[in-house]
Amino acid sequence: MNKFAAMGLAGLLTAASTTAMAVKPEDAINYRQGTFSAMAWHFGTMGAMVKGKADYDAEDFSRRAEIVAQLSKLPMEGFVPGSYEGDTDALPAIEEDWDKFEGGMNMLVERTAALAEAAQSGDMAQIKPAFGEVGKTCKGCHDNFKD
C-alpha cells in the first residue's frame, strides 16, 4: 500500500470510528464491500495456489495472507445501524443477532492471523488447514448473514 493510500485509509477509519452514527448507510455499505472485495482479491489468488491451479509462490502467498489478516480487522466499521437495505446483500439479521455476527467477525480476525502465521512457514501442510478454517469462517457468516 503506498503512503498516500495508507494515509487516506487511516483518515477514513478515524472518521468512521469517531462518527459511526453520522455515517450514511450507503457509505458504510461501500466501505465494507470495498474491504471484503480487497480480501477476496488476495484470498482468491491464495486459493488458486492451495488448490494447485496456480504455482505456489511462498513469498507471494505469505504477503497476501498478511494483507488478508490486516484487512479482516476493517469491515466491522461498516456494519452500522440502518445499512442493511439498498445495494447490499447483508441481512438485517446482523442487527438482530449482533453477538453471533460479532463473534464470527472476531473469529475471522483470529483465523486470518493464524493463516498468516502458517504462511510464514512456507509449508503447505500447515497452510492448507489454516486456509480451510478461514474459508469455513467466511462461509459461516455468509450462510447466516448474507443474502
From TrEMBL:
Q: Which domain of life is it from?
A: Bacteria
Which N-terminal stretch is annotated as signal sequence? 1-22
**Database matches in PROSITE patterns:** CYTCII
Pfam families, alphabetized: Cytochrom_C_2
The protein's UniProt keywords, in alphabetical order, are: Electron transport, Heme, Iron, Metal-binding, Signal, Transport
Q: Which Gene3D superfamilies match?
A: Cytochrome c/b562
Keyword match rRNA processing: no
| Key word Nucleus present | no
Q: What is this protein called?
A: Cytochrome c
Organism, scientific name: Marinobacterium maritimum
